[in-house]
Write a structure and sequence with these properties.
The chain folds into 3 domains: 93 residues, Fumarase/aspartase (N-terminal domain) (Fumarase C, Chain B, domain 1, Orthogonal Bundle), CATH 1.10.275; 214 residues, Fumarase/aspartase (Central domain) (Fumarase C, Chain A, domain 2); 65 residues, Fumarase/aspartase (C-terminal domain) (Ribonucleotide Reductase Protein R1, domain 1), CATH 1.10.40. The chain is built from 19 helices and 6 strands. The strands form 3 sheets. It has a two-stranded antiparallel ribbon. Strands 3-4 form a two-stranded parallel sheet. Helix 9 links the parallel strand 3 and strand 4. Helix 7 runs antiparallel to helix 8. The radius of gyration is 31 Å and the shape is elongated.
Length: 483
C-alpha cells in the first residue's frame, strides 16, 4: 500500500480513497450510530459468517480466507459477549467497528469479507434478524401473559362485577369474563406479530448497494443458513424496504394501547372509590409527603409508556414518507425508535403480567357495585318479552318508566321487590325475585361468548388451548383456524 493510500485510509477506512480530508466534528456527531446500533452486533456477525462461508462455497473466497474470517468473527463475538470489545464512535457504526477489529486480528484478508455486498443490504439483513428476534421475544411474553390472565379468569369465573359502557353501570359481568377480554386482545396481538414475522422473513443479502452484484453469489444459501424462508426479488426494494419495521411497530403500538387500557382500569380499580382490587406492594409506590398513600405507579407508567411506542411508529412513518429509492442515510433513524419501542413493550408486558398475577381482587365489593345503577333493567325487559309477550321496544319503555319512577323516590332497582314493581305496573305481577339479582343476570347469559360463569370457565380453558396452539403453529389465527 502506497503512502498516499495509507493516508487516505486514515482519513476514513471506509471511503478514504475518495476523500482527502477527514469529517468535521459535526458530521461525526450526526453520523455516529454505534452508540445505539451496537445492539446489532450479534446479527451482524452471524450474517457476516454466513456470507463468508457462501463466498467460499461459490469460489469467490478461498477456504483458508473464509476460515480466517470466520475465526476472527468468532473471536470478536467472544470479546463483545465478555465486554472486552470497545466500540469506537469514530468508526461510525457497528459494522465498521467489527470490520476494523477483524482487520486488526487477521490483517488485509478482512477486506475480502465485503466482497459482493454493501452496507445497504448488510444493514437490512441485520435489522430483519434483530426484529425477528424481537418478535419472538415478545411472542413468548404474550404467551406467558395470556396464561396468567386465563388462570386468574378461572379463579374468578363466577365473581360478579359491574360491566360498563360510557363508564356508566351497564350490565353485570364477571371478573373472569372481563380478564378474558384482554386475552382476546393479546391473541390478536400474537397473530399480528406472527403475520409481521412471516412477511419479514425474506433475506435481502445479495442486493448489494441497490443493483445486485457481478460476483457469482448464492443468496439462497445465506438465507437458508440464517433461517429465512426466501430471498428478495428486487434489489432496489430489498435495501430500501422498512415495511417490516412498520409492521412490528404497528403491532407493538396496538399492543401498547391494549396494555394502556388495562392499566387505566387498574388505576381506577385500585382507588378507594372503586375498591375493586389492590396491586401488590412491590409494584406500588408511596408519597414523599402523604404517609397513607399507596400509588399504582407501575400501572400509570405502563399507561404513559404506550405513548413512546406510538411515537416510535409515527417517527418511522415520518422518516419514510418522502424517501426516493433506493437508500438514503435517513434510514439510520429507524433504529433508535425500533430499539426504544422493543425495550418499552417488553418491560410493559412483563410489568402488566406481574400486576395481574399479584393483584388481589375484592369480589364482595365488585358484586356490591354490580347491583348499582339498575344493571338488571335489561333482564326485566327480557322477562316481559319472554313471559308477557311484549315487543322488546315496549318492554324497554316499561322498564325505563319504572326506573324513572324509582329514581324520583330516591330508589333504584337494587333493593326493590317484585311486589313493589307490580304495584307500580301490573305487568310485573308474577316476577320471580331472582330476576332482580346480579347472579341471575350473569347466569342467564349463556350465549356464545357470554358472561355466564359456566361459559367463562369454558372460555378460559379454550384460551389456554388456543394460546398453546399458537406456540406450535405459525399459521394459526385468533379464531383457531389455520390460515
Amino acid at each position: 500500500m502506497s503512502e498516499e493510500d495509507v493516508r487516505a485510509r486514515s482519513v476514513n477506512p471506509l471511503w478514504g480513497g475518495r476523500f482527502a480530508e477527514g469529517a468535521s466534528t459535526l458530521l461525526e456527531a450526526i453520523n455516529d450510530s454505534v452508540r445505539f446500533d451496537h445492539r446489532l452486533a450479534t446479527q451482524d456477525i452471524d450474517g457476516s459468517i454466513a456470507h463468508a462461508r457462501m463466498l467460499a462455497e461459490q469460489g469467490v473466497l478461498s477456504a483458508d480466507d473464509a476460515t480466517a474470517i470466520t475465526a476472527g468473527l468468532d473471536r470478536i463475538s467472544e470479546e463483545i459477549a465478555s465486554g472486552e470489545f470497545v466500540f469506537d464512535p469514530r468508526l461510525e457504526d457497528v459494522h465498521m467497528n467489527i470490520e476494523s477489529r477483524l482487520h486488526e486480528l487477521i490483517g488485509p484478508v478482512a477486506g475480502k469479507l465485503h466482497t459482493g455486498r454493501s452496507r445497504n443490504d448488510q444493514v437490512a439483513l441485520d435489522n430483519k434478524m434483530w426484529v425477528r428476534d424481537a418478535i419472538d421475544r415478545l411472542d413468548v411474553l404474550l404467551r406467558e401473559t395470556i396464561d396468567i390472565f386465563a388462570a386468574r379468569a378461572e379463579q374468578h369465573h363466577a365473581d360478579v362485577m359491574p360491566g360498563f359502557t360510557h363508564l356508566q353501570c351497564a350490565q353485570p359481568v364477571t371478573i373472569g369474563h372481563h380478564l378474558l377480554a384482554y386475552c382476546e386482545m393479546f391473541l390478536r396481538d400474537r397473530d399480528r406479530l406472527r403475520s409481521a414475522r412471516r412477511r419479514l422473513n425474506e433475506s435481502p443479502l445479495g442486493a448489494a448497494a441497490l443493483a445486485g452484484t457481478t460476483y457469482p453469489i448464492n443468496p439462497s444459501a445465506v438465507a437458508t443458513a440464517l433461517g429465512f424462508d426466501t430471498v428478495f426479488r428486487n434489489s432496489l426494494d430489498a435495501v430500501s424496504d422498512r415495511d417490516y419495521l412498520l409492521d412490528y411497530l404497528a403491532a407493538g403500538a396496538t399492543l401498547a394501547i391494549h396494555l394502556s387500557r388495562l392499566a387505566e382500569e387498574i388505576v381506577l380499580w385500585a382507588t378507594p372509590q372503586f375498591g375493586f382490587a389492590s396491586i401488590a406492594e412491590n409494584l406500588s409506590a408511596g408519597s414523599s409527603i402523604m404517609p397513607q398513600k399507596r400509588n399504582p405507579d407501575a400501572a400509570e407508567l405502563v399507561r404513559a409508556k404506550s405513548g413512546r411506542v406510538v411515537g416510535s411508529l409515527v417517527t418511522l412513518l415520518t422518516v419514510l414518507k418522502g424517501l426516493p429509492l433506493a437508500y438514503s442515510r435517513d434510514l439510520q433513524e429507524d433504529k433508535e425508535a425500533l430499539f426504544d419501542a422493543a425495550d418499552t413493550l417488553e418491560l410493559c408486558l412483563r410489568t402488566t403480567a406481574a400486576m395481574v398475577e399479584g393483584m388481589e381482587f375484592r369480589p364482595e365489593k365488585t358484586r356490591q357495585d354490580a347491583a348499582l345503577g339498575g344493571t338488571v333493567a335489561t333482564d326485566l325487559a327480557d322477562w316481559l318479552v319472554q313471559t308477557k309477550n311484549l315487543p322488546f321496544r315496549e318492554a324497554h319503555h316499561v322498564v325505563g318508566a319504572i326506573v324513572k319512577h324509582l329514581e324520583a323516590q330516591g330508589e333504584e332497582l337494587n333493593g326493590t321487590t317484585p311486589a313493589e314493581l307490580a304495584s307500580a305496573d301490573e305487568r310485573f305481577a308474577g316476577l320471580p325475585a331472582a330476576t332482580l339479582t346480579v347472579e341471575n343476570a350473569v347466569a342467564r347469559r349463556t350465549s356464545a361468548g357470554g358472561t355466564a360463569p359456566t361459559r367463562v370457565f369454558e372460555a378460559a380453558k379454550a384460551v389456554r388451548t388456543l394460546n398453546e396452539q399458537f406456540a406450535h403453529h405459525n399459521d394459526i389465527g385468533p379464531g383457531g383456524k389455520e390460515l
